[in-house]
Amino acid sequence: MRRIRYERHGGRDVLEPETAETPVxxxxxxxxxxxxIGVTLPVVRDPAVLAGEIAGEVIAVGEGVxxxxxxFRVTGLCTGHAYAEYAILRDDLxxxxxxxxxxxxxxxxxxxxxxxxxxxxxxxxxxxESALVTAAASGxxxxxVQLARVRGAKRVVAAxxxxxxxDFLRDLGVDDVxxxxxxxxxxxxxxxxGxxxxxxxxxxxAPGGRLVAFGSGGGAVGTDDLLTDAKSIIGFQIARLAPEVxxxxxxxxxxxxxxxxxxxxxxxxxxxxxxxxxxxxIAGRANLGKVVLVP
Length: 295
Fold this sequence. Notes:
Layout: E1 2-9, E2 12-19, E3 29-39, H1 41-45, E4 52-61, E5 73-78, E6 86-90, E7 94-96, H2 103-122, E8 130-134, H3 141-150, E9 155-160, H4 166-171, E10 176-179, E11 188-193, H5 198-203, E12 205-213, H6 223-227, E13 232-235, H7 243-259, E14 266-271, H8 275-283, E15 290-294
Helix pairs in contact: 2-3, 2-7
Protein name: NADPH:quinone reductase-like Zn-dependent oxidoreductase
InterPro entries: ADH-like_C, ADH-like_N, ER, GroES-like_sf, NAD(P)-bd_dom_sf
Organism: Nocardia puris
């Protein structure tokens, strides 16, 4: 099979194609013929392990697997080598792809949607409130702005690094688009921050507002910044969710997708050999939605 190998040459990351043996699933594992791979910022930052979200068809199952069989279409987080024509997926991390959805839909929707919806739940949004989402054009952010609206936000503000992303976000239903150095025209009730812009996001909150921090990055705030207007910061980590919560959130995401309320956007589809170009799009913060590899 064909897969991508990571090496470091002359101080730069290099992703090169190679031929490798097709892996064999062990106990509790699935062998998946990969149809789509979602490229994520954490892997771009540290490509030593080319893990990631995959979607495709189950080809074989390991000992003890009872929930999947060859021919099933699944998606999930591959913790091993994901940038390949065939990959191993743990049975407990796999979920079915419903009829009417493609593998590309699945990698654009599920993992990013789980993060976005989980962070939104952490904010305890109420109908009629206003929301701010940072990195709003990213794979997670572009879903978060839509989910905030679905959950009842009356006004959604998108914070981005480049105002040229504004048309893309307004097409998704965003009311206002601002750059990071710019405050919103009016304070918001809650903010979802995936890039570490804690101080600006906190200052954008109305009294009693909630900031959910769910992405790595710099930034620090003082206790006075919280106490003065009774604001709060809530940390969210997707890995902390219980398995049954994952199932509920996935079902909710697919329902929104089926009804047309949630539209996962794909910036571009790259062939496997062009994985380096896909990483460059993410590293340059140029993507509008999800970047996908298609073996």
